Amino acid sequence: MAAPGTQNQLSISSVEIPIHLEPKQCPKVEDGNVDYFQRAQWLRAAVLGANDGLVSVASLMMGVGSVKEDIKPMLLAGFAGLFAGACSMAIGEFVSVYTQRDIEVAQIKRENSIKASGETEEEGERERLPNPVQAGLASALAFSVGAVLPLLAAAFIKKHKVRLALLVIVASLALVVFGIIGAVLGRTPKLKSSLRVLIGGWMAMAITYGLTRLIGSNGLQM
């Protein structure tokens, strides 16, 4: 009777190895987490892109408006900032995320090189890697959306001072909205987040306006 007992113990111990390899349900649970992080990746890029587009173009238009009352230079500067910024954001985000992806792929290969099922696990890991094309497109699109707001605010206002005032008001409201969205996505205090974004945008517009006006008043004319 001792022999069967011994066989049972051996069989139980021999099953311990497949037990650790068997639960392939863990990747499914992780898949949900990784998918969330992938969505958070391009959502983060979208919010940051929209905020950058708004602040960059609004500041650029404020700077031009400080030395030129005509609406055409402001709009031309705004559109140039939109095109240049969208391309810059898309390329920068693409390169950044692609570099991150290469690093993660290399790490996955190193980890799977010592595993028997390395090829299967590597394929699964690759599916959960960040997408550089998606991040780049989201960043460029979001930058364009943010940049369009100050352009629309100033496009149909003829009076110079009213145009600048409306530009600041529209940019401020949009900054508050972007700050709240970022706080919701990051689960941070909404008031603090929106105030940081708003004050940062005000500083950017004020500095650009003041320095450009100072340069223009010292003899550099457009």
Task: Give me the secondary-structure topology.
Elements: H1 2-21, H2 26-65, H3 71-112, H4 118-127, H5 132-155, H6 160-186, H7 190-217
What do you see in this structure?
Keywords: Ion transport, Iron, Iron transport, Membrane, Transmembrane, Transmembrane helix, Transport, Vacuole. It holds the Pfam family VIT1. This is Vacuolar iron transporter. InterPro entries: Ccc1_fam. Belongs to the CCC1 family. The structure is a single chain. The chain is an all-alpha fold and 222 residues long. The chain has one domain (42-217). The chain contains 7 helices and no strands. It has helices spanning 2-21, 26-65, 71-112, 118-127, 132-155, 160-186, 190-217. Helix 3 (71-112) packs antiparallel against helix 4 (118-127) and helix 3 (71-112) packs antiparallel against helix 5. The protein starts with a helix and ends in a 5-residue tail after the last helix. Residues 5-34 have low confidence and may be disordered.
What structural keywords apply?
222 residues, mainly alpha, 7 helices, iron
